[in-house]
Design goal:
This protein is mainly α. The protein is built from four helices and two strands. The chain is 49% helix and 6% strand. Strand 1, helix 4 and strand 2 form a beta-alpha-beta unit.
Length: 99
């Protein structure tokens, strides 16, 4: 099991994903955003983490973008002209397959 965990951790690290702990303040932020902005838990978590760690959120989810704007957080919601084509591999295809 440790080998598979390490493979996944290495694949995520190669994508420049940053993992960090969740504390009580972040949980309160997620709960508050979910309630006030009527977001689903995962969307509220994405927004709360973005608000803590960056200056903007990149999303094509209209509800999430609207909620971010309501709390005065910057949103990037248009794909760049040089973005990867829609037919390219999804992020999940970069991870080692589960055994």
């Amino acid at each position: 099991m440790d080998g598979l965990y390490n493979e996944h951790l290495e694949a995520i690290t190669a994508l420049n994903v940053i993992a960090f702990g969740v504390d009580g303040d972040l949980v309160r932020s997620i709960s508050t955003l979910a309630a006030r902005e009527r977001l689903r838990g995962p969307d509220a978590a994405v927004l709360a983490v973005a608000m803590r760690t960056s200056t903007a959120i990149a999303t094509l989810d209209r509800r999430l973008a609207a909620a971010a704007r309501r709390v005065d957080f910057s949103v990037v919601d248009e794909p760049a002209e040089d973005a990867a084509p829609a037919s390219g591999p999804g992020w999940w295809e970069w991870l080692p397959s589960a055994r």
